[in-house]
Description:
Chain A has helices spanning 2-15, 26-31, 36-65, 74-96, 98-104, 108-111, 115-127, 131-159, 171-185. Helix content of chain A is 73%, strand content 0%. Chain A starts with a helix and ends in a 9-residue tail after the last helix.
Amino acid sequence: MAGELALIALSAMLVNNFVLARFLGVCPFLGVSRKMDSAIGMSFAVLFVMTVASVVTWLVQRLVLVPFNLEYLRTITFILVIASLVQLVEMVVQKTSPVLYQALGIFLPLITTNCAILGVALLVVQKDYGFLQTLTFAVAASAGFGLAMVLLAGLRESLALAAIPRAFQGNAIVLVTAGILSLAFMGFSGLVRG
Amino acid sequence: MQHERPTGPVPASALTLSDALSGEAVAGRPALDVAPRPAFNLREIGDDFVRGVWRENGVFKQMLGLCPALAVTTTAVNGMAMGLATLAVMVASSSSVSIIRNWIPGSVRIPSFIVIIATFVTVVDLFLNAFAHDVHKTLGLFIPLIVVNCIVLGRADAFAARRSLPRAIADALGVGVGFTLALIALGAVRELLGMGSVFGISLFGDAYPPFLLFLLPPGAFIALGLMLAGGTYLAALSARGN
């Protein structure tokens, strides 16, 4: 069991990295990675929401959708659950921890349209994971997201000082950099089969 | 996420088709024949369409909707399928949002839009599964993920929620066609470099050594980066030529 969980974690974090191999969450990956601070803030916000959201959607799937044969409503239900969860998290964090709210506040609304969150919820259903597997998968996936995000932010801070050919300035060089980063992550494939 | 062109002064008495559709008769007169000008302002509608196709192209100009754009464009055909699915959802959801825009309270606007979009995504999902099963299998996870495509929600909120039905449809068509063209272009470039063919038609014969990298995930990032750089270069060239 522990071995299986470790395998899931390794696969979700490195081999099938959410951003670099599965293309989930590319918008925040490119949009919020200009500065290291915001990249770290976004990574923690995603870690938090993704873990809670995947557990709640797993419960909804097992306790509501399957028993009542409502699986065709999965997309609508999941996105509604995620949207309201993000609102709830925002309110709770604002009330209980102003410091945390200052750090994560501006990232939370953006997370509703982060496809990595809905992606995890749907992948968990597709793979028919149990509770512990779901939890591991979500934590590892968001850790992988954070890893890619922090790496790219570091690269972009160095890029800001580099002499870049005029045609590549702006988004073009960031995309090529992300491509090379993704190439580096391909080195992990073969580490885990399947 | 609002990229609106300042709209010209519109006479307060102007009545649009969607006002008529909303069933609210103005000043006691029947709803449909009070328009002091045609409900269709063709020039405005044409402009809404063209702006979305190129000037505000989601993928190339605003870097939005990149997840599906990068993930499914291993071939031009796949890119087209994804683009058309998104186009269908956009047109349906933008027109629904425009029709009921006067009844949605501002505070619950985003959740309402998300439910509308999710409904049409489910329709497209089930439709593709039933009538184009192969396409459904290729696009996989990215069909339900149309729900969280920022372009769809962005246009619904920034444009359709404040405009008449014809303009909302024109805008959705424009942005959707622009998205589809961008995906076809990216798919064609990757297919050409990766397999030496476009739309499945081999261009170089068997002599072409496939550059597999462009079919793999890193190739998606690099191909889009090179295309953006090429676009910037060409724009600079033509600016110098003038």
